[in-house]
Amino acid sequence: MTAPRAGRRTLLAAGLAAAALPRQALGQGGFPSRPVRIVVGAAPGSAPDIGLRLLADRLATLWRQPAVVENRVGAAGNLGAQAVARAPGDGHTLLFAQASPIVLNQHLMRSMPFDPARDLAPVSLLLMTPFILAARPGLGVETLDDLLRLARRAPGRITFATSGATSLPRFAAEQLARRAGVELSNIPYNGSPPALQDALAGRVDLVIDGTPLLAPQVRARALTPLAITAPSRFPGLEEVPTVAETFPGFQRVGWFGLLAPASTPPDLVTRLAADCRAVLADATLRARFLTELGAEAIGSLPEEFARFAAAEREELGDLSRQIGIVIE
């Protein structure tokens, strides 16, 4: 790890404790005065869109104002993020973002239309979803140690499928390979389904992707789970060991967070974060995130999200330079 970061369980505990703050202590009593627009850089029906709509429904009830989801797809999430970065900082335009436009794209693209660290204010890290590394039938490995021994005997010959050359699962696998001192060969696909299909068919040795895609295959014994990239064993997949059990401190997860324009007053950012924690404290909603998205609800404080994003930005920047990926 290249920078200190708050652990998943630390963030989770802090978020739930802060959710108990009395509503009258949160300030900004005039917010919201009209519908709140929440932008997501993903298509309707996608995992980010589904996650946001679950959250937006609860926030709308809390705010007694509509929380309107706006899908702005393009430029690996930059289109939506840029629109929010340029919006007034009054809390009525927010961004529900994945890692790419916040901590990754700046390392992959020759130019960026905005500076995520300067132009956006972290509100709350909302959800985390880990990746599963799984082996094809017949590879002859049952554990991560088995894989690493095989990879050392055949440098560069073990292939791993990902949903794209710049996908976060690809970075997770590359991080693991470098930590272990082995060479693995990425086979990038145009999306997760074809990557999975070729792993099931034995055309690639490994596949790494999110829990919603791979957990059913693991439970059906169609793929052999080797490790999960969360810092601790994941609810519902407790039988799958973490990478961190072999390499202490290892973590690389997908995540969703809420951000506001940088001009948003700090007390309003605090209020927005507290509202997110209040709705995420609901056990029914948390269970839906876990079953429908394979995501664990967090609900961090703004300063925790800021530290987390800074660490992610540094780590992914280091990895991208080592891998040598640039999007023209």
UniProtKB/TrEMBL annotation:
<keyword id="KW-0732">Signal</keyword>
<dbReference type="Pfam" id="PF03401">
    <property type="entry name" value="TctC"/>
</dbReference>
<dbReference type="InterPro" id="IPR005064">
    <property type="entry name" value="BUG"/>
</dbReference>
<protein>
    <submittedName>
        <fullName>Tripartite tricarboxylate transporter substrate binding protein</fullName>
    </submittedName>
</protein>
<comment type="similarity">
    <text>Belongs to the UPF0065 (bug) family.</text>
</comment>
<dbReference type="InterPro" id="IPR042100">
    <property type="entry name" value="Bug_dom1"/>
</dbReference>
<feature type="signal peptide">
    <location>
        <begin position="1"/>
        <end position="25"/>
    </location>
</feature>
